[in-house]
């Protein structure tokens, strides 16, 4: 007797997407919502954390010359980190030369609160990690309790 599984955790479309991206590379990927160009390189890992009222964005960019190849900008309410990675290595062994060249552009974008301006953003680079501090990003962002009223017959209000 066989059993039939109606619900599955596997997403066949995600599997197909992964296979297609591996086979065709970045040209298969859809254009990003803010641009009409397709991604042409890599997507660096990023982490967004809170430090008091500040937001800290850390982007892993090992081996990149940040002075020449990285730009940090505030554009239409978004923090944009973009640049290009160029990595060339050459090795000679047993009379043969092995040369590896990797390159590609990248762009990461993060929404900013409406009150944040470019003056509140600072950036530093250390040990392959770009750290961008957005001063006051969480100022006034504390959760507030909202009273929810009901249509109860006795007119009681319930605080949530």
Automatic annotation (TrEMBL):
Domain (SHSP) ranges:
36-151
The text of the family note is: Belongs to the small heat shock protein (HSP20) family.
SUPFAM superfamilies the UniProt entry points to:
HSP20-like chaperones
Q: What protein name does the entry list? A: Heat shock protein Hsp20
Note whether Kinase occurs among the keywords: no
Source organism lineage?
Answer: Bacteria, Bacillati, Actinomycetota, Actinomycetes, Streptosporangiales
- Enumerate the InterPro entries for this protein: A-crystallin/Hsp20_dom, HSP20-like_chaperone, Small_HSP
Q: What CDD domains does the record point to? A: ACD_sHsps-like
Q: Keywords of this protein's UniProt record, alphabetized?
A: Stress response
């Amino acid at each position: 007797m066989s059993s039939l599984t109606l619900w599955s955790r596997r997403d066949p479309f995600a599997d197909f997407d992964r296979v297609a991206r591996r086979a065709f590379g970045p040209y298969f990927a859809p254009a990003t919502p803010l641009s009409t160009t397709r991604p042409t390189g890599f997507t660096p890992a990023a982490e967004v954390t809170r430090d008091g009222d500040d937001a800290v964005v850390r982007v892993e960019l090992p081996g990149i010359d940040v002075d020449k190849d990285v730009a940090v900008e505030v554009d239409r309410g978004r923090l944009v980190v973009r640049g290009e990675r160029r990595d060339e290595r050459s090795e000679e062994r047993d009379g043969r030369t092995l040369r590896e060249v990797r390159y590609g552009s990248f762009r990461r974008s993060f929404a900013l609160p409406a009150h944040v301006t470019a003056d509140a953003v600072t950036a530093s680079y250390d040990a392959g990690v770009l750290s961008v501090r957005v001063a006051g990003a969480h100022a006034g962002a504390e959760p507030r309790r909202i009273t929810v009223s009901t249509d109860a017959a006795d007119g009681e209000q319930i605080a949530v």
